[in-house]
Amino acid sequence: MTATGTPRRAGSVRAVHFDGSVLRAVDQTLLPWEKIELSLHDAEEVAAAIRRLAIRGAPLIGVAAGFGVALELRRERTLPALDRACAVLCEARPTAVNLRHAVERVRAAALSVPQGEMQAAALQEAREIEAEEVAASAAMAANGAQLLSGVAAVLTHCNAGALAAPGRGTALAVIAELADRGSLAKVLVTETRPLLQGARLTAYELSALAIAHQLVIDSAAPALIAAGEVQAVVVGCDRVAANGDVANKVGTYSLALAANAAGIPFVVVGPTSTIDPDCPDGGQIEIEERGADEVRSAAGHPTAPVGTDCRNPAFDVTPSHLITALVTERGVARPVDRASVAALCSKR
Ligand code: MRU
Question: Which of 41, 125, 268, 341 has the smallest number of CB atoms closer than 10 Å to its CB?
Fold first, then answer.
């Protein structure tokens, strides 16, 4: 509830929206300074928006990719067009498995009907994926808030809110639910270099939701955790391997180490569409390596000598033994291991 006792809005923003003929998407690279809506007409345009992080966040890129396949079939109802669309979308980003899962589902739906009905079937499947993710967000919020009942201060990393997943997001949905239930007094938000998803997007969403928060530089977080400033770390995820290892935004692993050293819960929140049962462990997850310019600059301004050699892994892997609980729409895995992840996968 807000100070006036009214429930918070379901989501502070609608990041993507299929309007019947085009996919409309808020360009997240420009937030919070400009709110520009992109109109995307085909698979390549959707893939390009995903590649440059105008559309980002694991569940959201899955949803957008599903619509991307349907859009391509609107232009050309043929099998080569379907194959082309699936390939370009799957290649857009390698780490979040939601992308591949959504594309495979929409492709299978299109192939299950006569060619003349492919487009309608693809669109219906894309809409179903979106609706499932909205429902999953609400269920994760309830499951996570029950797990963290009474917690007054949490730290989160990157952006796992309404800009990253339909509904209220994943980790941020749990945080909003804790705030709605009245226990949460403070959220520490890490900046999340190099692209500042925490500073630009999570601070924007929390402020729209009227949830008290403080922004910290990434390197301040471990000492603040050690000093007892938060009672839990709550983050999203891009891929959960079969053994429970989790890939999420780079910097997540060091937060897990800090949470474990401080003896506080390290909680990962994500829908089951983020679980990859075919990936045995975190070592098999492809980690996206992005361009050096993202490291050599901040918010478009140079921060290092021209030509400085860089590494820019966009994600890291947190081993399952550092994860206190995995919150999904189907329930909570705790401890997080091969058996508990398999149990979530087989649960309906
Ligand atoms: O590179 P990004 O901004 O797409 O990375 C996003 C994250 O790492 C999120 O934590 C993750 O996708 C979960 S989103 C609900």
Answer: 41
**CB atoms near residue 136 (< 10 Å):** 24
Residue ranges around ligand 1 (CB below 6 Å): 53, 56-59, 96, 158, 160, 164-165, 169-170, 197, 236-238, 248-249, 314
Q: Where are the beta strands (DSSP E) in the chain?
A: 16-18, 23-26, 37-40, 153-156, 186-190, 213-216, 232-235, 239-241, 246-249, 266-269, 275-276, 297-298, 301-302, 315-318, 325-328, 331-333
At residue 14 the predicted structure's pLDDT band, cuts being 50, 70 and 90, is confident
**Residue 170 burial (10 A CB sphere; 0-12, 13-18, 19+):** buried
Q: In the numeric block, which tokens belong to residue 95?
A: 């780490």
Catalytic positions, written as ranges: 238
What are the tokens at 162?
A: 């309404």
Per DSSP, 311 falls in state -
Estimate the crossing angle of helix 97-111 against helix 118-147, to 10 degrees.
Answer: 140
Q: What pLDDT digit, counting tens, does each position of 81-139 carry?
A: 999 999 999 999 999 999 999 999 999 999 999 999 999 999 999 999 999 999 999 99
Residue 234 β-bridge partners: 267
Distance CA 56, CA 125 (A): 20
From the list 324, 141, 315, 188, the residue with the least C-alpha distance to 244 is 324
The pTM (predicted TM-score) of the whole model is 0.96
